[in-house]
Design brief:
Rossmann fold, six-stranded parallel β-sheet, globular, 2 domains, alpha/beta, Quinone Oxidoreductase, Chain A, domain 1, 9 helices
Length: about 350
């Protein structure tokens, strides 16, 4: 079958036919791939910038792709809920099978680090024409959102991060007098698909959202910020006019982008670190540490998501479809066939929010 493969720790990628003999076993289904999303992790692997990537055991190459949407073609014995023709999204991370978190479906909090992630480390991904997977790792998707369901995986990570925020902030009374969050302000640093989803989810909670970047918005970003009633801020023009932040979410991975903003954090606020990069350096001095201590500033790093977060992401997409369907469709800014995947895997298209491959 046709697939997109890389050789871990070597730059470049290739679209080629691969010989995979996968039989549908007990509790498994065969899924025809319809769309796969492209993100910074994929480009990091293709550009040989991620040290942790590795092929599946017994392979020298890795099939790329962890953001997928497909349709069930065949079901095996013992499959309980899925039927031929159902639309599904696969969960990315598979647990170590040893630690308690992995045993109870919270592999996003694996304690051994011996998990595998499809298309990233230790397991072939979904940038191929079809794949066999266990039913337990597949989330059913309603037909009503099949045009945007490829966005489920990135949104699941955002759902998980906000769940962590809400749990941590139970350390005090954080909501407003009316029980909502309309009096709280959120800075979202970075305006790609993850930043857009953080902004949309925080607006759904009621936060006043400020979408921050080091440049003016693209037409797509301006449409998004206006549509969800958030303010787009070019930080190079200054941030003095912004109210104090109750939450800062960094999706850029650049300390130079979010550390200078921390002096604007409110008492009892929280910083969420989501983006990952290399090389960028900013000094954190004792004055900033004192500020964080004296103001009860919490810091949390968040990565990955489990099946519950995928299910929640599907629910949000379904709910948002009626109100923000135009916005969600506009988030998919580039669609190419696998033959042209090189142009979006090696370079980020101008004005991109989300690029996808149509199979």
């Amino acid at each position: 079958m046709k697939a997109i493969v890389v050789k871990p720790h070597q730059p470049g990628m290739e679209v080629k036919d691969v010989n995979i003999e996968e039989k549908v076993g007990k509790g498994q289904v065969l899924v025809k791939t319809l769309y796969t999303g492209v993100c910074g992790t994929d480009r990091g692997i293709v550009g040989n910038k991620l040290s942790f990537t590795r092929p599946q055991e017994g392979w020298s190459e890795l099939i790329l792709g962890h953001e997928a949407f497909g349709q069930v073609e065949e079901v095996g014995e013992g499959v309980k809920e899925l039927r031929k023709g159902d639309y599904v999204v696969p969960v990315v991370r598979r647990g170590c099978g040893v630690c308690l978190n992995c045993k109870i479906g919270k592999q996003d909090f694996c304690e051994t680090g011996n998990f595998v992630e499809a298309g990233i480390r230790g397991k072939n991904g979904f940038m191929r024409e079809e794949f066999v997977d266990d039913e337990i790792y597949l989330v059913k998707v309603p037909e009503a959102i099949k045009d945007i369901a490829v966005l489920t995986e990135p949104l699941s990570n955002v759902v998980k991060a906000i769940e962590e925020v809400m749990h941590i902030q139970q350390r005090m009374v954080w909501n407003c007098e009316d029980g909502a969050y309309d009096c709280r302000n959120a800075y979202v640093v970075g305006t790609g698909p993850i930043g857009t989803f953080f902004s949309l989810l925080l607006r759904t909670y009621g936060f006043n959202v400020y979408m921050l970047n080091r440049r003016d918005p693209s037409p797509a970003e301006e449409y998004v910020s206006t549509r969800i009633e958030a303010e787009f801020v070019n930080t190079t023009k200054g941030v003095d006019h912004l109210p104090k932040a109750d939450i800062i979410v960094d999706t850029s991975g650049f300390p130079s982008a979010f550390v200078p903003l921390m002096h604007k954090m409110n008492k009892n606020s929280i910083l969420v670190l989501f983006g990952t990069q290399t090389g960028d350096k900013v000094q954190i001095d004792a004055d900033l540490v004192t500020f964080m201590v004296e103001n009860n500033i919490a810091v949390v790093g968040s990565v990955n998501a489990n099946k519950w977060h995928f299910k929640s992401a599907v629910n949000y997409l379904t709910m948002w479809k009626e109100k923000y369907g135009d916005l969600l469709n506009r988030m998919i800014t580039t669609v190419v066939p696998p033959e042209n995947a090189k142009e979006i895997l090696e370079n980020k298209p101008k004005g991109e929010i989300k690029s996808v491959i149509k199979w």
